[in-house]
Amino acid sequence: EAAVISGASGLxxxxxxxxxxxxxxxxxxxxxxxxxxxxFSICVxxxxxxxxxxMAWTLLLAWGLFRNSPYVVLYSLAVDSxxxxxxxxxGLLIGVGLGLAGFLVGPVAGYVIEHFGWxxxxxxxxxxxxxxxxPLRFVEETRHGAA
Length: 147
What we know:
82% helix; mainly alpha
């Protein structure tokens, strides 16, 4: 049952990708990524308060609006930033993002969970999400006419 509930965020993930991708086309990539970063972080932090099936469904459905959406906006940002090298840029983004994250997050999260518990793991993940706001501050907006 927990596995089924954990897939809840995927149920609305496609809608989040469409919404945030469209919003980033109109308002700008940085604007959308800023909201996505904060929303993602809040949803991860709230996971520590799940105490019922209803709470899990509600929170994970809300998280679905943020969970996969940064990818479509980041890919658009990479293509906007270097249209002639879009393939290389996207490959590097995927390789570093997924490869490095997969290599580091598992052992670090496992250590935190084992020594400090699940609540600290969620807090660490939420804070690490917010670290994305630092490089985002230095990214140049790529959408012409964006606010």
